[in-house]
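README, section 4: Worked example with a bound small molecule

Sections 1 through 3 covered apo chains. Here we extend the same pipeline to holo records, where the ligand is supplied as SMILES alongside the sequence. The molecule in this example is S-adenosylmethionine. Nothing else about the input changes; the structure line simply encodes the ligand pose together with the chain.
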Amino acid sequence: MTDDSRTASAAPPPVDTTAPHSARVWNYWLGGKDNFAADRAIGEQVRHIFPQIVSNARAQRDFLTRVLRYLAGDLRVRQFLDVGTGLPTAGNTHEVAQQVAADCRVVYVDNDPVVLAHARALLTSSDVGATDYVGTDLHDPAEIAQAAARTLDFNRPTALMLLGILGHIDDHDEARLIVTRLVDVLSPGSYLVIADGADVDQAGNEAQRNYNRAAPVPYNLRSPEEISAFFSGLTLLEPGVVPVSDWRPEPNATDKPSGTAVYGGVARKG
Ligand SMILES: C[S@@+](CC[C@H](N)C(=O)[O-])C[C@H]1O[C@@H](n2cnc3c(N)ncnc32)[C@H](O)[C@@H]1O
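The generated complex, written as C-alpha cells:
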C-alpha cells in the first residue's frame, strides 16, 4: 500500500449473509471463496439453467485484462476509475495496469461492505503508482467524482470502467444519465469501458429471472442496442459493442467461449 492509499468509507453497513449479493455470487462463479451459502445456492441454480454463466464470468474478466493492456500499453492511459470493482481476484485492475506501466493510478468504487472488507488486497500499489478504494454508490456520480479526484487528475485522460454493474441500475434512462454524468467529468482523450449482461440467450434470461427473484438487488439484462446506447456521443473503438470474447481476442486464444452473453466495448471521448 502506498501513502496515497486509503479507504474513503464511514462504518460499513452490516452484511446480510442470508441474501445473495452480486459481488459474492460473481466471486463464486469465478471460483473464489469469498461467498456465503445463500450466494452459492443461487449461483448453482443459475448455473443449472445457464451453464455458460461460468465461462461468461471468466470472459468478462479476460475482457477486462485485454482492455487494460490495450489502454495502458498501446494508448498510454495512466488513470483508471473502476466502478463496481467486485471482490479481489486474480488480475485486479491495478495489477494488470501496473504490470504494463508501474505509474498507473487506480481508484476502485463499490458499495458492498464485503468488498470494502477485502479492499486491503486492492490497495497494494506499486511505489510510483497509486490505488484508492471508495465505498460509495453508483447512484451518486458526483460523490464518486469528488472522492476519485483525490487520487486521479481529471485534467488527464482516464479510463472509466463499468463492468457488470450497469444492470444493477433498473431504469435505462437513469443508467444512461449516470454514465453521462461520469463521462462529463473526464477530459478529452479519456475512455469509457462497459461490459454488461445481454438478453440474447433464452436460458440466460430465464436464469436471470430466477436470480432476480432471490436477490435484493436485481440485475437487468439489456439488449445489445441498449448497451450500445451508453456510448452515444463518444467514438467507439473497433470492433464496437460485441460479445466480450470477440473484443480484440488474443490472436492465438484457444479457449475463447462462444456465444458469450456479456456485451462490451470501449469508446473514446473527444
Ligand atoms: C458482477 S460484479 C462485477 C465485478 C467486476 N467489475 C468484474 O467485472 O468482475 C458487480 C459489482 O458491482 C457492485 N455494485 C452493484 N451495484 C452497485 C452500486 N449501485 N454502486 C456501487 N457498486 C455496486 C457490486 O457490489 C459488485 O461488486
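What to look for in the output: Confidence is low (pLDDT under 50) at residues 1-10. The longest strand covers residues 191-197.

Section 5 describes how to batch many such records.
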